[in-house]
Specification:
single chain
Length: 207
């Protein structure tokens, strides 16, 4: 941790350099904004999930319907978590085709020809293969079927839980972890210190 950046915090206990999570838990609302994001360099989203105020911020953030967690975006980004059976590359293929038709050679159809459709097909094949490699065998009986609505609700719930507990790999946690706009006050708080103590004892989500 940068000694110069945290020199103003050196007199506090515990030291931010030695126990950053405990320091954040104790002084989260007192740390100057220009120093706050520096803690992202020495802590992980999973480690910060031990801090109730941090989980409350993430919870409030998920309730704002952020782009990175919206259904179609999340399905494309974390296909191994999606239990549906649709064609994974459909959206990516459509994006590739649109690029060829509108941007490539300024969208001049006589030069583009069937390039858009061809690129779309290639992209869909790549995404299907990528999803096949990522998606694990869950051991769910094949005769148990959920409706598309149920699959979507279950997937969104799982994405939300994984995000809150710092287990959603590749998600941008800096958008909410360091922002006071997502603070939840006493009467609205969902997570508290008692649960944090249970998590430190091993009671955390395992996905």
């Amino acid at each position: 941790m940068d000694g110069d950046a945290f020199s103003d915090l050196a007199l506090l206990s515990p030291l931010p350099s030695g126990s950053p999570i405990e320091f954040l838990r104790k002084y989260l609302h007192q740390i100057p904004p220009h120093l706050m994001t520096s803690f992202a360099l020495v802590t992980t989203p999973k480690q910060r999930s031990l801090i109730p105020d941090m989980r409350n911020r993430r919870l409030r953030y998920t309730e704002t319907a952020p782009k990175q967690l919206e259904l179609e975006s999340a399905k494309a980004r974390w296909p191994h978590l999606w239990s549906g059976h649709e064609r994974y590359g459909k959206r990516a293929a459509e994006d590739e085709k649109e690029w060829a038709n509108t941007s490539f050679l300024d969208g001049m159809q006589q030069q583009v020809g069937q390039l858009g459709s061809l690129l779309g097909e290639y992209e869909e094949e790549r995404e299907v293969e990528r999803a096949r490699c990522l998606k694990p065998t869950r051991g769910i009986p094949q005769d148990v079927q959920e409706s598309p609505e149920e699959l979507s609700v279950d997937f969104e719930r799982r994405i939300k839980e994984l995000f809150i507990y710092g287990l959603l790999e590749g998600a941008d946690y800096d958008l909410c972890d360091w922002s006071e706009q997502y603070d939840i006050y006493d009467e609205e708080r969902w997570f508290d210190e008692e649960e944090a103590d249970e998590m430190e004892g091993g009671g955390e989500y395992d996905y």
